[in-house]
Structures are given as structure tokens and as C-alpha cells.
Amino acid sequence: MVLSRSRRRCFFSVPLLALLLFTCLNLASFGPVKYHELPFSFQRASPSCEEIQPVEASLRQHEIRYDSVSPQNHGAPDQYILHAKLLSEQSQQHFVHLPCPSRSHVLADELCRDATFTGKLFLKTQNHSMEGYHEIWVGYMKELFMHEQKDCYSFINYTTHGWRPAFWGWSEDDEQSAAKMKRLQDGRMWHRYKNLVAWTPFGAPRKYHLPSLDETLSEKNLASAWYLMVLEDSTGVRVEDLDAILDFGGGSSSQAQITRRLGFHGTYFIFDLPPVSLLQRFVLRTSGLPAVWIDEYMSNDQGTSTEDVEGLNVLVSRVSTLQRLFPPDGIRLFFATYSLSETPLAKRVEVFPLVSQLDVFFIWFADKPGLLWDHVEGEEQQTSRWGNNLRYFQEFIRKLGDVSFCLWRGGAETSTGSYGFVAMRRQLGRVSCAPSAGCIAERILKCE
After folding, report:
1. CA atoms of 33 and 176, how far apart (whole Å)
2. What is the topology classification, in CATH, of domain 221-447?
3. How high is the pLDDT of residue 418?
4. What is the pLDDT of residues 235-254, one digit of tens each?
5. By mean pLDDT, which of 173-187, 221-235, 252-266 is the weakest?
6. Where do the structural domains in the chain lie, given as residue ranges?
7. What pTM was estimated for this model as a whole?
8. What confidence category does residue 186 fall into, taking pLDDT thresholds of 50, 70 and 90?
9. What does the pLDDT average to over 38-48?
10. pLDDT class for 142, splitting at 50, 70, 90?
């Protein structure tokens, strides 16, 4: 996504006017707008919230346009990205600090308002929207909508309330976290990932302390960084090389945040249930990243194009919207960790025509421990509430066509019964069994 070479007008007030005017007049010379770098840096040591309010106001105008029911009002995504980056840099947020109180209040108001409106519509159509989902998840979604409507001003502290679903830490297993951390530190590219694992306040996740590091970590960020290392080591593809990502069941949005911080600057799609999409929009905007929820519930899905959302974080709750907006070419990643395998089969069938056309696939799923490729138990011996997951993904691989892949049993880094699966179109290269993934000879089911 290259910025327009035409000069663009910006309207800001003192004290940022001169700096921002200079920026607007010279955007073309900087090339693509990327999340992990700025074409300049601010010199102020600790600006006050009053000083950055003009940038906050401009960013808010972009958000309002994208939430509008009129697609022609959506504006240019590159400008939305730029002003999000300006705010992050000027406020020294850098994806790790909460925004100023004024912006936090605005985003909380937005969450309350939209959850109240969409929650009523969702409950009316719940039998259809949640068809096939386990009753536990039906209950989770009702509870999530309730907190989004009634507790929006304390929503950023989600984990401390003990709310469900436990997006910021399902297991709280320090042994798994320690094993992931060891893989990261032992890897030849530790310098590439080491700045991603520190604790961040969004959702107030549990803090994890590692004796060997004088730093407070987040197990969620640690897991997200480890996933990216495994992806890059297995495929040789770096996130900077990707043009689009489909994160299926993105949960807390932590993976999106970490992927952006590592250098991804394409379009990041998260497909999830409506109340989770609302959570993701709130958290991503709070973290300083531009995020839009394009959905029938918001009445902003009709007429929105792929170009309208290029380079943004796009939250989608309907397969039809995803099919219409997802880029038709480029190097595109399908990312699903313990999500596709927990999705009703009817929804998997619905989304597969799009997924099967993508280029790189990174999946984790659970099944009975110790299974082998050639000795998969029949469907009558179900190993999860969705059936035999290994058999499903064997068929999934076959339907992908000409791909190189590797499927293995997880080790100490993952929960018991975990299986990793990475695939890639052969014209992009060959998938390898990466030691960083715990993929050793005795754990391999099949690689080719």
C-alpha cells in the first residue's frame, strides 16, 4: 500500500501544527506506512495529554468515519494508519502503555454504546448465530456482551475481574511459558523477538516473572512471539513478507498486536463472534492500532471494498463479508491456534473455500495424545466434542492441493494432546520441522 503522491491537507492546533504540517507535505517521500517504524521521531521527553489531544482528535475522526454506515465516508486507510502511529509515538505509547484518560473514556463510551445496540440484535438471532456451538460458548458470549454493556469503564482490566472467556490466559501454566521462553532465547533470532514478550496492560493479564530475566513478562505475548518464531523458522517466510493474514478466532487480539510490532504492515483480518469482535476493536484501539469492525450489525459492511481497509486491522464476524474484503492475491497467511478445531463443522465448511486459496497455513489443535499419521482412530471413538481432529486436518491437507507441510505432536511448550501443523504452497518453498517448535523426529507424524 503506497501513499498517494498528492499532498494532503491536515488540520491540527498548536503546539503540533508545524510538525504535523511538515509531515503532511512530505508523506510521499516516506513510501509505505509501516507499523514498526516512523519516518521521523518526536524529541519531547514526556508530552502531556493536553499536547497530544490534537492527534487524538484526528485519529478519532478516522474511527468515526469507518464506523459510519456510509462507505464513501470511510476515507483513506493510509491516513488512519499514519495518525495512529503519530499518536503512539507522540504519547510514547509504543504499544505498551494505556492512552490518555480522555481517549480511554471515549473508547469505553463507544464499547458501551455499540455493545448495547448489537447485543440486542445478536440475542434476537442467537439461535442462528450460535448454531452448532457448545453451550459453554453460548454462555460465554452472553456474559461477554453483558460486561461490554455494563462494565465498559473497567473493561480494560478484564482479567482481574475473573471474567470469562479467559482470553488472556487459558492455562496459566508457568512450565509451558518457561519452555516457550527457552526456545525463544536459544533461537538464533532471539534479538528479533526479545522486545515482544514484555507485559502489556491491555486486558490486565497475569504477570509472569522469569528468574533469568529482569523483566515482567506476559504469557500471552510470550506465546504469540513463540508462534511467530515457529512460523518463520518452519517456512522461511517473515511476517514482513506477508500481504494479508486471516487470524481465525483471534480472541484477545494479542496475536495481532505482537505481529504488528514484529513488522507486519499488510491487512490483518480477525474472524470471530460479534461480542469478541467488539472486544478486539476496543483493545486494538486502546493499544494504539487502527481497527475497524465491518459487519451487518454495524450497518457499515455494504459497499466497503478491499481497498477501503487495506493495511488496517479488520474485524469480521460473517464469512460473506470476509470473502468480499479479503485480498485476492499476494502472500496470505491462515492462522488458527486451537480455534478452527473448536468451530462447528458447518462453519468450517462455509469458510474453507476462502481458506483453501491462501498460501501459508499455521494451525494448532488438540486431540488424543500420541496419535500417529497412519493409525487414526475412527469417528466412532471421538476424542473431542467436535470429533476426531487429526482425521479432519489430514483431509484438510489433502484438499489444499500442492503444499509442503509438516504435522507433529507438541512438546513441553504446549498442553497435552496438542498438535502443530504448518503448510505452504510449494512455489514459496519447503516447510521444515523446526526445532524451535519442539518438532523432533520422534514427534513427527508426517512431513513432506
Report:
1. 36
2. Rossmann fold (3.40.50)
3. 94
4. 999 999 999 999 999 999 99
5. 173-187
6. 17-90, 101-161, 221-447
7. 0.87
8. very high
9. 38
10. very high
User: Is the bond leading into 165 cis (omega within 30 degrees of zero)?
Assistant: yes
Identity of residue 326 = F
The set of cell numbers assigned to 370 is: 500420541
Which residue, chain included where needed, has cell 491491555?
202
